[in-house]
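Hi R.,

Here's the chain you asked about this morning:
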Amino acid sequence: MSERVADGGGLGLAANRTARIGAGLDACTRCGLCLQACPTYRELRMEADSPRGRVFLIKQVAEGEARVDASMAEHLYTCLGCRACETACPSGVPFGSLLEYGRHEVERAGVLDPERAGWRAFRRLAFEWLLPNRAAFSLALAPARTLTRTPWLLDVVRRLPLGARARRLLAMLPSSKSAAAGRLPEFSAAQGGRRARVGVFAGCVMGALFGDVNLALVRVLTRNGCDVVAPSRQWCCGALNLHAGEGRHALAMARRNIDAFKDADVETIVVDSAGCGAEMKAYGELLADDARYAAAASAFAAKVKDAGEFLASIGLRERLGAVPGRVTYQDACHLAHGQRIRNEPRELLRAVPGLELVEMRGADRCCGAAGVYSLTHPHMSEQLLAEKMARIEETGARTVVVTNPGCHMQLIAGATLTGPRVRVRHLIEVLDEAYRASERS
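And here is the predicted structure, written out as tokens:
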């Protein structure tokens, strides 16, 4: 392993993860099985925009055979980080870790295409100021939060003569059912016999724009016999930072969440955002060399479960009411590929009376959201979204079910701007509606 890889490229990662990077670079046999799994390769048909092509570029830099340049930077940032290549790879190449390392090398070298000069300013604002700082993030999203909780106003603003980028951003905003949706109660008692004591991770985007989903998760968990704890000091999981190659703040955010849940005395930490869950399950690996946090990080990661994963494991206790209609399910990349969870959400949907689940073609193909990708690479994002909306339309479903806020916002934009005019709902919202329907029957 080169000295450059051995120090994690300055990323501040634990030795076991940097060892994984070195081994991962050697594991790629260039067999090509990843090619058709890769959204950008399917669209661009360029070797450098395939997983094996990107691994080759990263390996050249890691071994000192090439220098980071603007061309390499563009190929790495064009990647969505969906990790579909990991599912397809027979050699177990940890592409997500390699991509994070490669992107950090780009940032460390300070090399970007002049046409993307705004990316550096955006990166500093988002990853160094907003996401690490709860107060700053809340202030920045206050206008968006106001619009989501005032549907009539959101509809009015969407009709204004705005530029394409502004229209796209407004189209992504959800409409909240309740103006009261916001911070979760720190404790909610189980209904009926107590089966478990769990923590709930509220997240940054989920908490700001999808407070209704978080509140629905608490209701569903309590109805299934769970005492629910939501520590007030928790914050962003750090996934967006780490995916962009920003390690310092990402690791600080991981430590903050570990501290927040330290005294919660919970058996499981339930997460309703696929991207957050995938990152939090890796905390043990991220902090393995941190003498103060290594053991706590490993214990924390072992407790993390996706909401659908957890509910399927304990079994739904109460009778569900009927929710008539045809739905289809969109696999979140970091649930299907990152956490290898596919069946559990579908099992829960099939348990709802009156609900017809119709599978779409390519359900596990990326919708083009990919964190901030729709902002940094709008053209590619829109191409992938158009493909996804066409697949949804084929099913004849009136509702598409998701498990991640990025997918949620991307598909809302698709339904708003191009159609089909489907509802986009989180899995937990569907279960919550089914429980409320049972009370009326």
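One quick note: The chain has 26 helices and nine strands.

Cheers,
M.
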